[in-house]
Input
Amino acid sequence: MGEPSQPPGATAPTQRPPDVQVLLDAQELLVPVLIWCSSGCHINPCPTPSEYGYTCLGYFFISELHEEIIECEVDDTGGGARGLIRWHFGLEWAPGGEEFLLDNPAGNATQPAVSGGAKAVALDISRPWWTGSRETETDTAPAVGKHSQAEEEEEAEVVTMVTEKVAKHPPRDIRLHYYSHIPLDLLAHFEPSEFFPRGWFCRQCGMINTQTLFRHQICRSSACKTSSSESALGKPDPLFKLRDVYSSSTVFRPLHNVSHHIGLEEATWDTGMKTYMYTFKEGVKVLHIFTGNKEELQGHADAFLEDIQRHVMLSREDASGPFFTYATKIGIATDRDPPIPTLPGGVPQCIARAYLYLANVTEWYGQLERPWFGQISVLAWTTTGTRKRVSPLISERQALFVDVT
Output
């Protein structure tokens, strides 16, 4: 196939567009480029379910690059020229660490297995992963709906052309130099005390997930939904990792800032617990049950802190906010004497124990007979600051109990 025809006397400008210049530099320096393809792109060689927004096709070298001048108008007065240029690129695929991404390697380091759902398939690094192999192409093709015979023939022709080109041009082995298709922070193990990730890579199916849960990483792809357990345990941080030595020391009085005209009643109990009753206008009262950070009074709270991180799915409140929340309504069985609170099915056991603990503490130190809470909410955050929530804790008609751990 010959070079594209160009208008006579036309020449391309010496200054290239920035994106084209990057590819020119990559070709000259023999640096591969990493190509991602959107799921809606009509030339995507790897059709995927709609849940995948983009597909990583791998590393490619620029094998050829030239311009075709479509239009060219030269200003006779010497003011310059304008026109339209089409750039043509030739790409040559090269393996770049596909075998190091997924779990369950089969055979050796050069023959890993990728999980396509129900069946593990040996990965042939002599060809792009998305072309499949002649033996497993039928088994590993993603189910994305029915195709017409013409579409299937066209896709088969494209795969054949790519496979033949790869066979004619053996790929350059660059796995030791370019061993990851995605940023390394997405491959790191989830360690809450070290950093909070923006996302993570599922080594079972290959999906990159956004970190939407506080202490859990559960892949939401269709391939993993059937095998992943919603009861997977989160990775908790103990209290000593969340607080410095000063925040863990005993506190003799609460660090409150209350106007002097507000009434205050203090009481100290035999257990060492202290209570502070604040009386506002119109008879509104606030009771502060204060443990003073004493170890003997913090045992239940410390256990709840780890259990909630381990068993409760705390979801991000909004995409740009730092808060993660969990809430559940609590009913009351009026057919019992006395009436007892009832929690919905599926509520983690640690939430049920936390409710009983809060009720007992409120009844004992708050001097309330059979207290009942209509809802339990858990609020967590990963960054420090003074940013306020979109929905603050407001209660106009019912009592509000806040346990800060």
Observations:
- Helices lie at 18-29, 137-140, 149-168, 222-225, 239-242, 299-311, 349-365.
- Residues 87 and 316 are 44 Å apart (CA to CA).
- The longest helix spans residues 149-168.
- The two ends are 72 Å apart (CA to CA).
